[in-house]
Amino acid sequence: MYDKDNVFAKILSGQIPCKSVYSDDNVLAFYDVSPRARVHVLVIPRGEYTDIFDFTQNAPADVQLAFWCGVRNTVEKLGLRNNFRTIANTGRGAGQSVMHFHVHIMSDDRFSEEF
């Protein structure tokens, strides 16, 4: 069940500020407040989806497409086209701390050496 008081819902409603990178009618991308890489951005849909399963099962196809276009637009705006990774943690056991579907876009020069 979606918690309407989660931190991302509060960011979307304007109750909590964020440092926005990209925004459109379907997504909001903003810098993570606890970055784990040189560039660490979160991309969230504007709808109420708890995780990737909820999103892919319940969001209309056009909303899903718009979300992934928003991810791509964010990557391109950041100039990371050939040096980034995306992560979508699903469930608390996998590290999902906010139960609002989101992907992490991360980039750090170390990636080419570590992975």
Question: What tags apply to this protein structure?
Answer:
115 residues; alpha+beta; HIT family, subunit A; 5 strands; globular
List the helices and strands and how they pair.
Layout: H1 7-13, E1 20-23, E2 27-31, E3 39-45, H2 52-58, H3 61-78, E4 85-87, E5 103-107, H4 111-114
Antiparallel strand pairs: 1-2, 2-3, 3-5, 4-5
Describe this structure in words.
Helix content is 31%, strand content 21%. With 115 residues, it is of the alpha+beta class. It has one domain (7-114): 2-Layer Sandwich (HIT family, subunit A). It has a five-stranded antiparallel sheet. A hairpin with a 3-residue loop joins strand 1 and strand 2. The longest helix has 18 residues, at 61-78. The model has no long low-confidence stretch (mean pLDDT 94).
Provide a quick synopsis of the model:
The protein is built from 4 helices and 5 strands; from the N terminus they run αβββααββα.
Instruction: Return the string of H and E elements.
Output: HEEEHHEEH
Shape annotation = globular
CATH class: Alpha Beta
Total helical elements:
4
- Rounded mean pLDDT score: 94
Q: What's the structural domain tally?
A: 1
Structural class: alpha+beta
**CATH level-3 fold name:** HIT family, subunit A
